[in-house]
Amino acid sequence: MKRKFIFVLLAGSFLFSSCIFSQEINEIPLKLSAGKTLVTVKIGDLEIPDILLDTGLPFDGVIIYNPDYEDLLDMTGAVRVRIGGAGKDEDSYALMIDSSEFMLGNIKMKNQKILLLQGDVYKGFPTNGIIGNSIFGHYTTGLDYDRNIMTLYENRKFETDENWIVIPLYFKGNNIPWLDVSVVVDDESPVSLSVYIDYASRYAVELLEKNEMKFSLPQETTQEYLGRGLSGDIYGKKGIISKLIIGIYEFKNVTAVFPSAEVRSKQQNADAILGSDALRRFNLIFDYAGKKLYVKPNSFFNEPF
After folding, report:
1. Is 152 helix (H, G, I), strand (E, B) or coil?
2. What is the set of domains in the chain, with CATH numbers?
3. Vertex 139: Cα angle to 292 and 171 (nearest 5)
4. Helix (H, G, I), strand (E, B) or coil at 245
5. Whole-model pTM?
6. Taking phi first (over 0 means left), then psi (-120 to 50 degrees means alpha), and beta for anything else, what does residue 36 get?
7. pLDDT value, residue 230
8. I want to staple 236 with a disulfide (CB 3.0 to 4.6 A). Which of 53, 179, 193, 259 is the partner?
């Protein structure tokens, strides 16, 4: 029987410990679909494909939001919790098992939270759930889009060559990675921005609209529906910026979106969000422990935005 008490779980606010057992190097198939990076998890005997990698999920566990799995998952002993996220409406609710386990490839992940989102707010979405800190927070994580392989390294035992460059990462009290990038709007001077990575974002860059901004809006924008977060729909402007500069690499004529910072982001003092349509153009190694992001252009690098 499910207990009825409620507590608040705000994405981006809580960190939980885990005990994860594996070999030193683990290769796991990944799928790139519509700019999103997807993996498969196994909970008990149930395989759930198309779980979205999300650097913005800072606790150890997985959120399943496809209602088709409601009758397939054993949620005995679950409690009802409230989950806040992007959007301007009320928070979502989920059933949560506080300490469970699941498989990712050959890795058994223990002391994991399993959340089953209630309602059908994400019904029809092409993905079934999200996973984040269970991977990025405990492993040096390599994403090879040329081979469609995610490699998880224990003890930072990885090698790079001269084709990789290093971009410093920093953290602000949780396990969400930040870095500095530059943008050029309407061929003006480059502006340096403090951004965080949200791998669940399908956009290249989301420039947050607020009272004090370091950048100006493009002269031509359109108002559009940008997506849905855990707390409702997100609307904003869309336009083309002249350049997005990540490390030594420059992308020209980049499609950017401009959501309200108040609605879109829970992170204080963020100028922008770097999303998957920029990052998928590189093979990547996330080294949280070393506070470094290694990048190397891949076969998607020159695709138009």
Report:
1. strand
2. 6-156 (2.40.70.10), 165-297 (2.40.70.10)
3. 40
4. strand
5. 0.86
6. beta
7. 63
8. 259
